[in-house]
Design brief:
Length: about 325
């Protein structure tokens, strides 16, 4: 069979409709799958930092912090450990950007999830470190947990020309407020939503797309934002299996782990467009103005969103503290 007659893999079909993003800190995996963008988070950086091929990025961050820590950066004093953590994240981001044409997402410390001021300060410092490495801010998305304080920080950062990725999205209300505050991108966590409802309903097998709460959450969010012409991009994240990904073909972006990228590359199922601007315009989604009190009440009344947001913050916080301990040990 001639090469031109070979069937397209499911991944190649998906990439015709959706921007594929690698959800990993493993640069070798990014080289293999050649995504447009990439995302990182503290858990991925922690995992990658313990791989022998990336020890040099860790060592360089330590060296940089020893030289520049406890000095003024953008008019503020930064201790060595904090600077090393930031520089480590940026080192991975810089290395990743050598192998993709688009953007990389770098996350602020989860300990600032409810701290507007320090979220903005760390975001600005991360951008400064990228620019020091000759990476323009247009290629960076600063990941901020979608708490009320985090979303307020998103608004301020966007006004400064710092693009954001509001993460740990578990509710349409989080997505709507980020869009109203003109965040660049949101990351609804498909798999974690599905996990919650499977446990609540005693399910042992993953549901089909129409019954998958995680998939349907992204469908709802996508339709809402597109129906009302919000500029915020939607990036489905945290997938448990490939069928969830295929069920969201047409979404602006999908961030996918290396193992699922590989599976999609080996599959040849048809991947029809599921989400579209035309479909969104015909949906029944309703826009509404959300005040802080509305946001907090609606999150409180949604046990899944409240629990999974807190769980996600705890997970990223704990993994950042593990990285912090690694830095302290290396510096001592």
């Amino acid at each position: 069979m001639a090469d031109t007659d070979k069937p397209m893999s499911s991944l190649d079909q998906l990439m015709k409709h959706t921007t594929v993003v690698a959800d990993t800190g493993d640069i070798n995996a990014i080289k293999e799958h050649k995504p447009q963008d990439a995302t990182t988070n503290p858990s991925l950086i922690l995992k990658a930092s313990q791989m022998p091929e990336y020890v040099h990025l860790f060592d360089e961050a330590i060296s940089y912090a020893r030289q520049h820590g406890d000095s003024l950066i953008d008019g503020m004093k930064v201790d060595k450990v904090t600077l090393a953590l930031d520089k480590l994240s940026v080192n991975f981001g810089v290395e990743i950007l050598k192998h993709i044409p688009g953007r990389v997402s770098t996350e602020v410390d989860a300990k600032f999830s409810f701290d507007y001021d320090n979220t903005c300060i760390q975001a600005e410092r991360l951008i400064s470190l990228y620019e020091e490495a000759d990476i323009p801010r247009e290629r960076i998305l600063i990941k901020v947990p979608a708490t009320w304080e985090g979303i307020c920080a998103v608004e301020s950062l966007e006004e400064e020309g710092i693009h954001t990725n509001a993460t740990l999205i578990f509710s349409y209300i989080q997505a709507l407020v980020v869009a109203q505050y003109e965040g660049t991108l949101i990351s609804p966590f498909v798999g974690r939503i599905t996990d919650y409802h499977m446990k609540e309903n005693g399910l042992t097998e993953y549901p089909v797309a129409d019954d998958d709460y995680g998939v349907q959450s992204v469908v709802q969010i996508y339709n809402l934002l597109k129906k009302y012409d919000f500029k915020t991009e939607v990036m489905g994240a945290s997938f448990r299996h490939a069928d969830q990904i295929i069920a969201l073909a047409g979404c602006d972006l999908l961030t996918i782990s290396p193992n699922l990228l590989h599976e999609l590359q080996e599959r040849y199922d048809d991947v029809p467009i599921i989400l579209s601007m035309e479909g969104a315009k015909q949906s029944g989604q309703e826009n509404e103005v959300i005040r802080e009190s509305d946001f907090r009440l609606k999150m409180c009344l949604d046990p899944m969103a409240s629990y999974k947001l807190s769980e996600g913050i705890r997970s990223f916080y704990n993994d950042t503290r593990k990285l912090e301990n690694m830095v302290r040990e290396r510096m001592s």
